[in-house]
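Running low. Invent one:
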Amino acid sequence: MKDMDMTEKTLKRETLFKGNIIEVALDTVSLPNGGVSQRELVFHPGGVGIVAIDQGKIILVRQFRKPLEKVLLEIPAGKRDEKDHQDPKETALRELEEETGFTTQNLEKVCEVYLSPGFSNEKLWIYYTDQLIKVPNPLPQDDDELLIVERYTLEEAKKAILNGEIEDGKTIIGIQYWEMHEKG
């Protein structure tokens, strides 16, 4: 069973939408069992999330997320783009500075995860640092972002997950990593 070819072959791709952030396509595919099906796909350049620890507290940002029509509490994060030369580490450093006013010389990659592989190729790189440096004149936040920066102890962050205040997957992964890092 493990050696079975499960590959779906693309027979036809129709681009339905091409925006500034995502592209949406409809693929017609041949299935390994000989059938034919359709797949709705979202292509995304990927992003980063940063677990930033300042004096024993994680820095989180509170911001409105339009697809959910509500405010979420998240680790600093952002989309990869050309100004970072497609290097996720550069994106992480830029987003950390824009959203928190900090930078670091010690950024450790935690993991790379696919967020919704059933329909999207979006990959997220998560980084960790506990060696923050305050930037005197930090990069400005994006014009279309309104963020509130907050700090939580590990116990407060875990409680926020349990009571449903933190619902964001990358943030939950980041807090779990922080806890494992603390326990050595």
